[in-house]
Amino acid sequence: MFNLMTKDLTEGKPLTLILGFSLPLLGGYVFQQFYNVVDTVIVGRFLGKESLAALGATGSVNFLIIGFCMGICSGFSIPIAQKYGAKDYKTMRQMVASTIHLGVFFSIVVTTLTLLFCRPLLRLMLTPENIIGPASDYISIIFAGIPVVFLYNILAGILRSLGDSKTPLIFLIISSVLNIFLDLLFILVFNFGVKGAAIATVLSQGVSGILCLIYMHKNFEILRLRKDDRKIRTNHLLVLCANGVPMGLQYSITAIGSVILQTSVNSLGSDVVAAVAAAQKINIFFCCPFDALGTTMATWGGQNLGARKLERLKSGLYACCFLGFIYSILGFLIMFLFGDTLGLLFVSSSEVEILEDIRLFLVIVSSFYFLLALVNIVRFLIQGMGFSSLAIMSGVLEMIARTVTGVFVVTTFGYLGVCFASPFAWLLADCFLIPAFIWCYKKLQKEW
After folding, report:
1. Which of 151, 157, 241, 331 has its CA 20 to 30 A from that of 213?
2. 161 within 8 A of 93, measured Cβ to Cβ
């Protein structure tokens, strides 16, 4: 009935379990970002700094939409984890079927809307004229691939709900290697330009989703849907939306601030856009451990809530924060010592000013990694505990912080203001999330 890859997080030492569960997740995030970084490296090195800036100009819009899709998928997995923790496997399968129904619906709606409005949005963001053409080409292809984003992230979320964080990693490794090969093929051989990088990303994501689907069908009997499971159940759809939509909106609300900030960055010229694009790619890559710890906490919260083990919610939080703070120190040291070298991945040594801007961004942002650790760990734990709507507030605060920075701080302090935008957003979110977790925990204590 059970696959050996599943993992029960309701029994055992929190630190050991969290580390064991998050390491495969970390590998998955690293490889996912790895082929995003490779896209940028190949574009920057072989197509020039204007093409690099074109990719950078789409970054916040990409985060706005793809982040929404990934957030929804992560939210859908929480009720599944709760039913798995409660050993209610029949309802769990019905939740899986309802997740598939919703995934099809959202993928069609989001793809249609984004393809209609992506170019007008780039113009609204004051994207420089010399890069708006390739930027529009790139992001349009990425948005056309939204259905495969839903396919992979829904299936990977279901597997993680059952404690299997290793299999999605394996398929991401395969797709990452494929993406690198396709990047080189489409850009260097077929001369597709930035469109080649987008096509490579979509195709490789599609392969990882199909591999997940085949694996789950062959190996997870517990997930094989009966005829009765496939019925549309309004109550399950509402429960899933109550978890998924707030998590998706949380990403999107946060990204709205990033879009406004990107507009201010665009006004500083294409060289600054290129520097921020490269620095952000490096930063996102080094932030993968925080993403892995956050996703781990969502599953941890869901399973232990289902098992009604309240004390493990708190002990898991402490263990996860310990791991996050240790990595924060390590991440800062790497950025401080090797920021210049990392920048050379994207631009040549002759671009001295761009390299200096990249290092400055990395050193300032990594100095506040401990704040980001708290944001991800506490926010995802709250969501796993069933309080998704509260997590939206942290996203609103991040949006406000980045909006204020973009509208006022960047116009006054220029590039330095861009560097402090994310730390300011993390600080404001933490000021809400920590009291919010205490309130949620006490509420569950009273109910139980």
Report:
1. 241
2. no
